[in-house]
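Newbie here. two chains, one complex. Structure please?
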Amino acid sequence: MSGSSLSPCPIRRPAWWRTGLAPWIRRLTRIYLLVTLAVTGPAAAAPTVRSIIIGSRDNIPPYAFINEQGHPDGFNINLLRTLGEVMGWQVQFRLGPRAQMQQDLEAGRIDALLLLDTAERRETFLFSNALTLIHFQAFARRDTPTIQQFQELRNREAIILRGGFLHDYLQRLDPDIQLIPVDHEADALRLLAAGEHDYAVVSELGGRWAQQHYHLSNLVAASPPLAPRGYALAVRREHSELREQINQGLAILTETGRYDSLYNHWLGEVLQDPHGLAAMLSYTVWVLTPLTVIAIAALFWSWLLRRQVAQRTRQLQWELSERQQAEAALRESEARFRDVTEAASDWIWEMDENLCFTYLSERFYALTGIAPHHVIGRARWELSTVESAADQQKWQQHREMLEKHLPFRDFIYHTTRRLSDRHLKISGKPIYTAQGKFAGYRGTGTDITEQVKAATALHDSELLLRQIIDLVPHMIFAKDRHGHFLLANRATAEAYGVTVDDLVNRSHRAIHLVDEEIEQMLADDREVIDSGVSKLIAEESFTDHTGRVRIMQTIKIPLVEPSFNEPAALGVSFDITEQKHAKEEVARMRLYLKNIIDSMPSILIGVDPWGYITVLNQPAEQSSGVSWEAAQGRYFGEVFPQLEQQFEQIRQAIRFGRPIKTPRMMLEVDGAPRYADIMVYPLITDGASGAVIRWDDVTARVRIESMMVQTEKMLSVGGLAAGMAHEINNPLGAILQGSQNILRRISPDMPQNRAVAAAIGVDLDQINRYLEQRRILHFLEGIREAGTRAAKIVTDMLSFSRRSESQFGPVDLEDMLETVLRLAASDYDLKKSFDFKHITIERDYDATLRVVYCDKTEIEQVILNLLKNSAQAMTEDGTFSPTITVRTRQEKNFALIEVIDNGPGMDEKTLKRIFEPFFTTKEVGAGTGLGLSVSYFIVTEQHNGRLSVTSKPGQGACFSIRLPFTREALT
Amino acid sequence: MSWVLIVDDEEMIRENLKAYLEDEGMQVAAFETVSQAMHWLQEGGRCAVCIMDMRLPDMDGNTAIRALHTLYPDMEFLVHTGSSSYTLPEDLRAIGLDDGRVYHKPLNDMAPLAVAVWTLTAQQGGAV
């Protein structure tokens, strides 16, 4: 393998130099060594067997290294071994790192050290003559720019041998060179070859050796050989005699040709190029000096010739320089092209005049996975994937363009080959031969699959987002500060009666109908944009394109979106019209229900499961005297002590989920007994339970019902009486008429009696005296009275039947009352038991009330009954200053007649039964027990009026007759 | 002397009325049934006033009054009934009866009835 093929001219050196001069230089070097040896003289020529320890680095092949057998080996090592043989020394090697070796040398543990000869080290050590001259050279991968001097390594990464000369040298040269120290020169190159770092700076031969040895074909020398240094043996300063001996030995080796043979053996292969020009010249100068004398002799002879040569040389040098520059430029251009081609993701393609591929750079194959033989010689359209008519048309156009030899840019197509599915973008221009003939196309291609995929994905995701926001029934939009729509969803567009596309970029002002709404909305937008703080507009009116006003709730948030040029307000509007209406409806309904429950006559008390009040209706408020607000949260038993015992019912109602009724519960309200139906309804709503207590005061109904029972009784009595009246009246007639006749016929006043008595010789007067003495007349009177009472009972009983209206008529109330009062004063029964005249009668007539419509006889009877009842009660009680007040009043629908006494009054028990037939508090025989019940019947049943009584023991009694004014009420 | 005709199926009522009116100086013919009374009249019995019970074994009192009035248009009638719900039929009102001529049993006092009989007899101008 030739060096030039490995390293394409990284070192600029004239060809003539390269071809023949190297062996000469080597020879001259040898001569130089001999001369110097001769000058210095063999100081210790006598071979004395002595042991000498030489230290060396072990990591600098081909100079010094550990070979495969584990022994020190290399040019230096073998040279010194040979030196030892020549000098009769027993040479031992000690290999190790330089720093340690240096210490060993200083400490005397070794005698000499193979070391680069530098000015600095000379201060410490003595150096022998150089064993060989070393240059340093930068190596790099092919794509790395070459350098001319080490200063150019600045800011680059350079791999170097740890602790070597260069380490210090480069560090001192420029601290900005990034040094990567390694332990072995070969490592430096291998690391570099592996793609690490930028350069490896190693000894020229070491580098080449490693290159060859490890076949690092991707590396090239990236600089000329630089910084030459002599490799020599350092000895301690006091060992100058050793140095002299070494020098002597070296001279012998050179003279004997052993140096050359070792050199060729170790370095010849490696060294394709001679050492650097400067070094050579310096050697040459040295060598030429002794020859100068000879040269002077020839000098004149050759003067003319030399002038010609010089002239020619200058010319050559100039040409050379020109060529060098051109070559360098070309190489640079080539390198750049290669680098670009290799590094780029794009590829280069060429087509011939038939538009068939002639060339495609590697990248194309790597990317598409298409083998070259599938492509070369074929047209591009034969390789493409045509999926649609549009594709077909595209290709057609492309083909036409190419056939017209037009340049094109950014033609995008799609190829599906094997597993790869790629989108490719190509550009090309026609190429022409020097003669101007069309020679095909050349161009680049790039893989835009990822971009296409990303764009597709982006498009898809935008599409999805679009779909989503269009699906949302709420209005979503973005507007800039000036009220232009930047974004709008379908709901927004529909509200304005346009399409989304129409709406976007339009001004809000141009599309919205109501100015006040626009100004408010735009003001909100600006506020959000300026403050950068989102805003909730709880309620705003929005008039849509149909003119319908919607109530919206809107959230606006500031939006900075790169695709919008300026900050915007993003809004989401919810139509809350329905909700609002629903809310209003709920409020209205609530009020409505409250009104309903308030309008109910029942007392309604809502309680929670623990009996705490949640709701009261108006009757409940009135009844308890506590407002709903005040009662809320209080225990119901506290507000309604009468109901406290209902708690168990509440509990049960809630527990069993059904209403529990307590009918006809006796309650005391304001000290008066009342009847109530108590109903406890469980309330089972989700989440909350409780109960409603419904309290219906049924006192009136209970009374009416009991009276109806009475009425029924009376009617049955009436029916019974009607049926038997005839049968009873006849015997009663016989009794009464019979007793009347008896009394008449025993009376001495009657002439017929006396005549009969005289005829039969009886003295009527005597008989009468007898009858009186034997109380026979009294008994007869008793029979008469009993018959009369029985007849009265039958008459009263007969009253318990409905009468026809025939006896009804307009009656002057005052006249009627006066008649009754007169009648009462002369009433036989009344007169008998007490004197009605002792009772004070007070009249309290309503002057506006004159005519009532009634059955006069019946009502007279009723009033008489009431007067009698009062009078009897007061007489029995012995009431002081008994007074009866007869009062009339005009009520809305009734004429009210009241009979009020200041008698003993009645207890509750009596009041309850007072209108019951045959109920009487009087002693047996004092009354029929039918008076009040007949009165009640007459008023309520026959007149559709009302008869009621209020009384308390010791506080008199008040009977109230209410007769309806309207005729309808009667039927 | 005025004759008073009494038709009543209740014997003691009949007897008592007869006794009372006779004590008042009247001539009284009393029968249990209408047919007996008719028979007496056909036999030549004469009376100015008839006291008629309503519920009779052979005939309803109203019918009897109509029949007697047809035969004896001058005869005056008084109704003496045990039924409390008795009302005068319109045709009887048309021949001069009114509520004042209706007497309900039991009569506690027979004097008003006797007065009525006297009054009616007097209107007819004394004896028949």
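Moderator note: The mean pLDDT of chain B is 89. The radius of gyration of chain B is 13 Å. Thread marked as resolved.
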